[in-house]
Amino acid sequence: MPKITTLLFDCDNTLVLSESLAFEACAELANEILAAHGIDYRYTGHALFTEFVGQNFRGMMSSLQNKYALVLAPAAFEEYVAREEAQVIAKINAALEPCAGVDAQLARLAAAGRFEMAVVSSSAGRRVEASVDKVGMNRYFPRSRIFSAATSLATPTSKPDPAIYLHACKVLGKRPGECVAIEDSKNGTLSAVNAGIPTVGYVGSYEPDKQDEMSAVLKDAGADPIMVNWKDFLACLQQIEERP
Hints:
Blueprint: E1 6-9, H1 19-36, H2 45-52, H3 57-68, H4 74-95, H5 102-112, E2 116-121, H6 125-134, E3 146-148, H7 163-172, E4 179-183, H8 186-194, E5 199-202, H9 208-221, E6 226-227, H10 233-241
Parallel strand pairs: 1-2, 1-4, 2-3, 4-5, 5-6
Helix pairs in contact: 1-2, 1-4, 4-6, 8-9
InterPro entries: Beta-PGM-like, HAD-like_sf, HAD-SF_hydro_IA, HAD_sf, PGP-like_dom2
Cofactor: Mg(2+)
Keywords: Carbohydrate metabolism, Magnesium, Metal-binding
């Protein structure tokens, strides 16, 4: 196997515990859209997370339109995207926390200087930047090392499309096989794996009673190994590096 040179971290619920905050804001807007179209169903943040985890807001709104046969005018769609970004960033600035154990691991990796590190996310660039700024991870991930499927590409997309991982590899001058991705969702895992990147599945941000289920989901999507605690990350990397 090629020598691993680069680590590509998903952001939401991999580096920071942002998904519950984000899906609260998304649910508010999704319910507004459903009400405006005379649809009685209403989402909680948790229900929206369960159904659409791993998608960014654009992908989620496209899925909602398909599910409920809705048609949003392009201008209205973009207005909702902008509102969602602003509402999520406000929640991030108020209450965001890092995933357990990740700070110590990032500090260890940075001190060793063995790997280049970047963030590869479906979320809007401003949201990812706000997240790493809020928890002090901007010392590891400068703006030039943050890649967003929603805002870094000529045509916005969302995981599981592998485009954002391929774009990050191109900008960083890396081959997919010399990178390792760290992902917590099925869509994120599929995005990295379909780009040809070995992927560590992280389930530590899920409730304990969901971790076994999500381990199976991520493994089925191609993640191997699966990690529950960030303290085990170097051992996971070693497993990947020792493959023939």
